[in-house]
């Protein structure tokens, strides 16, 4: 493992993307999203993705610049076409517009279609929370997960995220509808590690702990409820926005076609329901009820959603980010290819 500072990692990866022909503004957003994923311990959505992104860029599967087009707008709603641009940048613009509309109308929904992988959903939901709003973010994804009771993959991991403002850091629930995000299996394979049983099945439908075999097979949902939630998210982000959906979405790592993903950003302005400070005081009590409850056997403490990630981020900012040797060497190779010789 290598320990690198968050600032060095951001600057290094941003320079690679700029040298790879991305506008600096977009490169900054993309890298900020990736590095924050590493900071909060979601390494599967961190800088390990950079090489995959650049591979798709070089193959012409994704545009080097995101040209957003407004397709429909009416009061509190807006729908963008990302025109096969970068999901992180499209997501930032869409969430900023949703926040602006929520401040005016009380609530809002921004949709994006014809987009690409946008990193962690929490990156955008926390934008709303930091603006004094409640944010909900969803996206569909490549069909790498089987529906409950099926052997054929027709669903993505289709994450759901909600972020709530508090007097401290936001309360954040960010969850895939699969037992695990596929990126964790990719990272395990890259690091030559096995995976827990229950994460995935082989292409023949058999349980496996082999990361390479899992990548050839399919992810498992969080039971029937996870399968149902994934379906509803696909309907809202894919069917309703005009994006691709279900089994029609190309796979990010295996297919040479644009993914045409759909994202949805929902924002509720707290001030339209009650004074923000009063809300935060009520949240203090809601948090207290949870974290001061007695820990069950085998647990040291009870946490609110997002607490552990926040602690990881604070630690990473002080002590640096741990990057596996495989990912570190991959980044150094990318730097050599694009003339970025700075130290990590």
Intertermini distance: 13 Å
Structural class: alpha+beta
Strand content: 15-25%
What name does CATH use for the topology of the largest domain? Answer: Ribosomal Protein S8, Chain: A, domain 1
Backbone CA Rg: 20 Å
Largest beta-sheet characterization: 7 strands, mixed
Instruction: Give the overall silhouette.
Output: globular
Rounded average pLDDT: 95
One letter per element, helices H and strands E, the order comes to: EHHHEEHEHEEEEEHEHEHEHHEH
Count of helix runs = 11
Portion of residues in helices?
Answer: 40-55%
Q: How many domains, as an integer? A: 2
The spatial strand order of the largest sheet comes to 2-3-4-12-5-8-9
CATH class of the largest domain: Alpha Beta
Give the name of the CATH architecture of the largest domain.
Answer: 2-Layer Sandwich
What is the number of strand segments?
Answer: 13
Assigned CATH superfamily of the largest domain? Malate/L-lactate/L-sulpholactate dehydrogenase, NADPH binding domain
Outline of this structure?
This protein is α+β, with helices and mostly antiparallel strands.
């Amino acid at each position: 493992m290598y320990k690198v500072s968050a600032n060095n990692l951001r600057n290094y990866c941003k320079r690679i993307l700029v040298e790879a022909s991305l506008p600096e503004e977009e490169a900054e957003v993309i890298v900020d999203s990736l590095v924050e994923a590493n900071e909060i311990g979601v390494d599967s959505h961190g800088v390990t993705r950079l090489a995959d992104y650049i591979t798709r860029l070089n193959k012409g599967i994704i545009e080097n610049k995101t040209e957003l087009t407004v397709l429909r707008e009416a009061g509190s709603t807006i729908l963008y076409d990302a025109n096969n641009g970068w999901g992180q940048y499209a997501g930032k613009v869409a969430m900023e517009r949703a926040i602006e509309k929520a401040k005016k109308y009380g609530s809002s929904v921004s949709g994006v279609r014809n987009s690409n992988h946008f990193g962690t959903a929490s990156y955008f939901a926390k934008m709303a929370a930091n603006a004094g709003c409640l944010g909900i973010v969803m996206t569909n994804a490549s069909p790498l997960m089987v529906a409950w009771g099926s052997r054929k993959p027709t669903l993505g991991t289709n994450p759901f995220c909600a972020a709530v403002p508090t007097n401290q850091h936001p309360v954040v629930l960010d969850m895939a509808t699969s037992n695990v995000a596929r990126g964790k299996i990719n990272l395990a394979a890259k690091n030559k590690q096995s995976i827990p049983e229950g994460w995935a099945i082989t292409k023949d439908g058999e349980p496996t702990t082999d990361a390479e075999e899992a990548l050839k097979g399919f992810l498992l949902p969080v039971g029937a409820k996870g399968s149902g939630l994934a379906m509803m998210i696909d309907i809202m982000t894919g069917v309703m926005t005009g994006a691709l959906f279900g089994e029609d979405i190309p796979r990010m790592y295996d297919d040479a076609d644009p993914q045409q993903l759909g994202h949805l950003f929902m924002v509720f302005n707290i001030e339209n329901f009650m004074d923000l400070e009063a809300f935060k005081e009520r949240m203090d009590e809601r948090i207290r009820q949870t974290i001061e409850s007695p820990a069950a056997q085998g647990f040291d403490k009870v946490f609110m959603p997002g607490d552990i990630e926040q602690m990881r981020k604070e630690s990473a900012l002080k002590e640096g980010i741990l990057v596996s040797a495989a990912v570190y060497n991959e980044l150094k190779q990318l730097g050599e290819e694009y003339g970025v010789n700075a130290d990590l």
